[in-house]
Amino acid sequence: MNELEEKYSKLSDNELLIMVYFESSDYTEEAIKIAKSILDKKGLSQPTDEILQHAKNHQTRIKKSEETSRDIFGEKKLKQAVQKRDYYFIGKWLFWIVVGSGIYSALTGIKEATYIHPLWSPWMLFFLEIFLTIAIFGIIPIVFFIAYSLRLSSGQRKEKGLFLFMPKYVLFVYGISLLLFVVFLILPRL
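Below the sequence we write its predicted structure tokens.
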């Protein structure tokens, strides 16, 4: 028994019926073939309309329960994401936490920075602090985005809007942050 057969044999009858009769375009031919053979073994090779309707109702109930388990951003709750190892969702949360901590750091440290660098205006130091915090701690969500993206095919990455293994806005903000980090901290020391 191969890995796919073992995985599908653990699915419920309803899940197999949904897979074969309602969502077959989402799966490969091999996966559908394996699911059909498992249904055959269970005596469901020719399901009645009543059985198919029951499976469809089951699918609707599952979708409704998933919708109610969303947080304020319209995404799955963080605890569920950690349990399911949804690295994309975790990466998004971590990225916004890093941005928030950069803003907090800039707000709390702006008075000290104006004494250290009296030639720079406070607003320049404010934004520099934010971008440098993102450059340093932003690697943490980047690792989660890469771990998530490596599981996907290139077509799935395009469909999700990922560029270089991460969302475009993350790449843009993190790229600018790294550039500023190199220009203001690394190059002056060389």
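The chain has a mean pLDDT of 78.
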